[in-house]
């Protein structure tokens, strides 16, 4: 870490200097649940998406201590769920997405284990980069 980062860890300048001497310090953290009261989980079409060649979504407003571990889209022509690639963080992408409405489901892990949640709403076939689509699903 940088000296600046160490300076922010210490309670005062002396404590920061003492931490910096260690070089490597163990940092403990506690996970706190996110709270998006009144918000459904939302798919935001990432700004780099280009209809019809490249489709990427960011999953927003995931309540509680859930993690989105995977996203799949439904391919109508073969009647199969196809995995999207996890690009980074909560962003998932797919090259050459199907034409028409896009149905998505996402896998969450939490205290109840690992399970799939299907969006109750489809993403319209004329989707645009930057648009958001409400799933009509709340996790709590």
From TrEMBL:
> What domain of life does the native source organism fall in?
Eukaryota
Pfam families, A to Z: Expansin_C
Q: What is this protein called?
A: Expansin-like CBD domain-containing protein
Which ranges does the record mark as transmembrane?
none
What organism is the protein native to?
A: Glycine max
User: Would you identify the family this protein belongs to, as annotated?
Assistant: Belongs to the expansin family.
Q: Which residues form the Expansin-like CBD domain?
A: 53-135
Q: Which GO terms describe its cellular component?
A: extracellular region
Q: Which InterPro entries does the UniProt record give?
A: Expan_Lol_pI (IPR007118), Expansin_CBD (IPR007117), Expansin_CBD_sf (IPR036749), RlpA-like_sf (IPR036908)
């Amino acid at each position: 870490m940088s000296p600046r980062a160490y300076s922010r860890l210490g309670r005062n300048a002396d404590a920061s200097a003492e931490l910096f001497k260690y070089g490597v310090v163990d940092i403990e953290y506690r996970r706190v649940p996110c709270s998006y009261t009144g918000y459904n989980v939302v798919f935001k079409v990432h700004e780099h998406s280009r209809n019809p060649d490249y489709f990427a979504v960011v999953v927003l407003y995931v309540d509680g201590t859930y993690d989105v571990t995977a996203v799949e889209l439904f391919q109508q022509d073969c009647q199969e769920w196809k995995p999207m690639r996890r690009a980074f963080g909560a962003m998932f992408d797919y090259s050459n997405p199907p034409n028409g409405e896009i149905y998505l489901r996402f896998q969450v892990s939490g205290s109840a284990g690992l399970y799939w949640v299907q969006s109750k709403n489809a993403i319209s076939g004329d989707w645009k980069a930057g648009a958001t689509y409400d799933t009509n699903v709340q996790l709590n």
